[in-house]
Amino acid sequence: xxxxxxxxxxxxxxxxxxxxxxxxxxxxxxxxxxxxxxxxxxxxxxxxxxxxxxxxxxxxxxxxxxxxxxxxxxxxxxxxxxxxxxxxxxxxxxxxxxxxxxxxxxxxxxxxxxxxxxxxxxxxxxxxxxxxxxxxxxxxxxxxxxxxxxxxxxxxxxxxxxxxxxxxxxxxxxxxxxxxxxxxxxxxxxxxxxxxxxxxxxxxxxxxxxxxxxxxxxxxxxxxxxxxxxxxxxxxxxxxxxxxxxxxxxxxxxxxxxxxxxxxxxxxx
Length: 269
Hints:
Layout lengths: L9 E3 L10 H4 L1 H6 L5 H17 L3 H15 L4 H15 L6 H12 L4 E8 H11 L3 E10 L2 E8 L4 H14 L7 E4 L5 H5 L3 E5 L3 H10 L3 E2 L7 H4 L6 H12 L19
Parallel strand pairs: 1-2, 1-5, 2-3, 5-6, 6-7
Antiparallel strand pairs: 3-4
Helix pairs in contact: 5-7, 6-12
């Protein structure tokens, strides 16, 4: 396989990067309405969502969320979960999608870069989002299914170093050049994911990731504008899109861009 034929890809974390909240927790109410969740579970999920929105998710918090979700979904009918997600997607997920993330995805797509979502959330939730966004690949947590019901066993947890490992495996299989690739995430737990590529970006970073980005000279992006996909398909490129497109082409420092407030330490400073 020729090294020269390898191409860059763009890897996006999902929660608080492409969407404003936790995808795993966002469907709590629809699952409750469907009878999958009890009221006490719904209240606990609401509290977890609130804490996630304030503090993000460090390793311990992500582990707690993983274990809680694994316990909750044991015995759930897979078809019921998929139908509930599909029927409520427009109401639950679309209003949370960052328009800045859509801008970036379209800019990468225009450059011929494959788009990959890399998320700790379950594939039953991430894959529908990936289909709606038209991404090329999804890397996400997988749970075992027995007789069309979730067993509660997690067979692959897309978290921390395992995200980077999965990215390297995908790059090898699809002939992606990671040194020329891009990655976007909000959490310090994804530092291995960001370090796996040549052009890492911190998006709405938690405090540890912000510190790491400032130390390493990684660009910092602030995503604040949610937009529905139906509306996003109709608007024209803005100044922020044009500027971000230039960053993708040249991987250069971006300053003073409308809507992004990107901060980047001068590597010579």
